[in-house]
Amino acid sequence: MDKFNRFKIWQNKNVRRSIPFCIAILFFLIMTHLDLIGRAIAFLFNFILPVIVGIVLAYIMDPPIRNIEKKFSERGTRHARGKAITIVILIILVSLVLLIVAVVPQVLSSVVKFATSKTSYHGALQQFVDGIAKRHVDMKTAFSTIDNMLDKMQSQVQDRLVSGSGSGGRHILNFVIDFILAIYFLADKKRVQRNARRFFRLSMRDTTYERVSSVWKRCDRIFIKFLFCEVIDALIVGCANAAFMLICRMSYVPMISVVAGLTNLVPTFGPIIGAVVGAFVLMMNNPIHALLFLIFTGIIQAVDGYMIKPKLYGDTLGVPGIWILIAVVIGGRVFGVWGMLLAIPIVAILDILIRETLLPMMEQRKIKREMAAADRKMKNSEETGALELLQALQKDAQEK
């Protein structure tokens, strides 16, 4: 059967004319049922969320496992992958235990202290306002606004602590399930990878498969390196903040240092948010400490931007800064914090796909169009030359 017979229906004018109306009706139904569609997507996402988190954890744990497995294989050790998985799991568990024992109690203590110290903050603010009032400056409105803000923050923090303690067991259970799924994914990685490669080899041409495989490997290297460099950079910034605050004898060192490290993961706007939060908390206790903290944050961000990050990343990304800023803004507006976190690697991957896949395809199509145009021009010139030759022969024949 002719390969075009299956598309014969599209040659019908009535079918082609009805397509825009069908698209318009579908768009209208989607827009009028956005709530239902959103709930359905949310239900489906929550249903498969453990699998997604397990795949993400396995993806993050895979690079160190590969390095350890490679070293074991070079020594001729049996069951190299199983031993590598066991070592990485033990390292993660020990790190979690140390984090829970050393850091979490300090952070919780700082949060509880901040939530229950509203009275002392009220007195400090009252003294501050009285001092300004002596200079004939009206600060009653500002004081009332800050006082209401503190009341709201105190109630929110206390509610979060109560609700967090109630749902902590459920989150721990979900994490255990996700971690177990990640271990199974890692254990069966080679078999899944082998089947996937076989499927794509059978469904693609060899040249296409090699091109896709090369682009995927580069994207994988970029994303993994970006992820680990971000974590290391956040640890450096958080530890530097903690050391500076301890030297200056500031309050709430664990809480503010953790906030500074976590917000540093968010490109561009994260350090600003961390600086504002830390300065606000310190200002309630000692305005001088808040000023010193802001100055140090500016210095550490300058050092981080011009020395630490270039040293960590090197020339891995190579994406213009304006595209990173646009991606962070759009990602944050559309997907929230996760959109801001993943904006840079996604832009880097899109840059690779455009430069190494889309642009070469467009160049090949342009070359084909130019060759076709040259062939048509040559054919037309040959036809014109043949016609001129025929006319010349006819003219000679008539003269004779």
From TrEMBL:
Signal peptide: none annotated. It is found in: Cell membrane. InterPro entries: AI-2E-like. One of its GO terms (biological process) is transmembrane transport. Keywords: Cell membrane, Membrane, Transmembrane, Transmembrane helix, Transport. It is a multi-pass membrane protein. This is AI-2E family transporter. GO terms for cellular component: plasma membrane. The chain crosses the membrane at residues 15-34, 40-61, 82-104, 171-187, 226-252, 272-300. Belongs to the autoinducer-2 exporter (AI-2E) (TC 2.A.86) family. It comes from Pseudoramibacter porci. It holds the Pfam family AI-2E_transport.
